[in-house]
Write a structure and sequence with these properties.
The protein is α+β, with helices and mostly antiparallel strands. It is built from 1 helix and 4 strands; from the N terminus they run E-E-E-E-H. The chain has a domain of 60 residues. Helices cover 13% and strands 18% of the residues. The protein has a 4-stranded antiparallel β-sheet with strand order 2-1-4-3, with no helix packed on it.
Length: 98
């Protein structure tokens, strides 16, 4: 069955799997129940592995509204870790000193 994308004005985009005979039927937002408009989207062809398709889908959805995760670094003792910046990295903690 095809997957159709709909957009609610208040809650954003959601997907529904439904038969092709229901292509023109309205869809209610799963969060508020209000009618949502169907979006025009390209056909999703099953190419590559299922893992790669899933990763590509997540990447596509996150390009406009990435999820931001915040966590505090902890040491094995459970105390917050202190970040140290080595002089060879010139203030960039992700850079490898050469």
């Amino acid at each position: 069955m095809p997957v159709y994308e709909f957009e609610c004005n208040d809650h954003g985009v959601f997907e529904l799997t439904r038969p092709m005979v229901q292509v023109r039927d309205p869809a209610a937002c799963p969060e508020c129940g209000e009618p949502a408009k169907r979006l025009l989207s390209a056909a999703s062809l099953a190419t590559g592995s299922a893992v790669n398709r899933r990763a590509a889908g997540i990447n596509e959805r996150s390009q406009h509204e990435p999820k931001i995760l915040k966590r505090e670094l902890t040491q094995s003792s459970g105390e917050p870790a202190k970040r140290t910046v080595h002089s060879s990295s010139r203030g960039y903690p992700w850079a490898i000193g050469h």
